Structures are given as structure tokens and as C-alpha cells.
Amino acid sequence: MSAGLRAAADAATAALHATAAARDEPVKNAKINFPEVLVISESGESLGVKTVPEAMALFDAKEMDLVLVSTSQMPPVCRIVSKKAAYEKKKNEVRKRPNASVVKELEINSTITDHDLEIKLNKATELLEKGYRLQVTVFERGNKNSPVVIKKIIASLQSHGSVAGMPDVSGKKIIVNFESKTKK
């Protein structure tokens, strides 16, 4: 590859990265600005080095896309991908995200009454059954009752979730993390 062609390819790569990163989408079809690309079929076999129009002529544009996979090699690598498969993959990724690492938090004072603690524990049980991770923070308020409250919390939530690590004591608060036993 000549030096002029290499410089043009580097400039195209920089422009593609800037626009694709802004949209967080792969570069597809006619938006691929390279003179030649290495084409990989949907099954994974190499179809050789072709120009973008030649590569796009290899498949039905209504059902397939030519997607830029790698710009670090010369010529850049493109893969022929089914639009339906790409849509399903994106849909599954979106579906997996919502509660993957959502941590719900409950804050409790050490002066809490038994009835109020029972209500908070019911809410905590509900969250753990839904599959959320839970962080319970107990604030010390003068009576030094936090260890008793923490023991009650751990005892009542043990059947719905497991304690993730040791309780963290920092200043006037104690933090206990729970992992749900029911997976989504």
C-alpha cells in the first residue's frame, strides 16, 4: 500500500472513529470510507479484498449489512451481518441491562422502633425477592444500639439474601450489603 493511500486510510479511520463514537454505533455499508476492505462472510470465511461497492454487491442490502469490524489492520476488516441477527443481539443486550447491577439502599437509624424496623425489613425482603442487590445503612444516634439492629436485620434477611462481605463500619454508620438469592 502506498504512503498516500495509507495517509488517506488513517484520515478516514480518524473521521470514522469520531462519528461512530459519538453515536456508539458500528460503521455500516456506504459510510465505510476506505478504498479497499477485507470482507468476511456471515459464516466467518474470508471473501478477499474488495472495494466497498464490490463487497456490497455480494449480498442482499435489504437483509444484510456490511459492518466495519477492525480498522487496525490494512486493509480494514468488514463482516457481512444479517440485519435480523444484529437487531436480535442489540435487543438482547438492552433486555439484559436494566437490573444487572442495580443496588437499592435502605437507611435506618439505630433508634428505630421494632414496628418501623419490621416495615423496613418487609421492603428489604421485597427488593431481594425481585433480584436486586441491597445496601442497608444503619446510622448511630446516641444510644449505641447499632450492633443489635444489624443483627436483627441480618437474621431476618438471611432466608432471602446472603450477606456480601463483612459489614463496613465507617464513623457513625454501619453498611451491610446483601446479594439476592433469586436470580432474574
Would you give an account of this structure?
Belongs to the IF-3 family. The strands form two sheets. Strands 5, 6, 7, 8 and 9 form a five-stranded mixed β-sheet that branches. The chain has a four-stranded mixed β-sheet with strand order 2-1-4-3. Helices cover about 35% and strands about 25% of the residues. The protein is built from five helices and nine strands. It has about 180 residues and is an alpha+beta fold. It has helices spanning about 5-25, 50-55, 85-95, 115-130, 145-155; strands spanning about 35-40, 45-50, 65-70, 75-80, 105-110, 135-140, 160-165, 170, 175-180. It has two domains: about 5-95, Ubiquitin-like (UB roll), CATH 3.10.20; about 105-180, Translation Initiation Factor IF3, CATH 3.30.110. The mean pLDDT is about 75.
In round numbers, the mean pLDDT is: 77
CA-atom Rg in angstroms: 28 Å
CATH topology of the largest domain: Ubiquitin-like (UB roll)
Strand fraction: 25-35%
**Assembly state here?**
single chain
Largest sheet geometry: 5 strands, mixed
Order of helices and strands: HEEHEEHEHEHEEE
Query: Which residues sit in consecutive blocks of at least 5 with pLDDT less than 50?
Result: none
Give the name of the CATH superfamily of the largest domain: Translation initiation factor 3 (IF-3), N-terminal domain
Kindly give the count of domains: 2
Number of strands: 9
**CATH architectural name of the largest domain:** Roll
Q: State the secondary-structure class.
A: alpha+beta
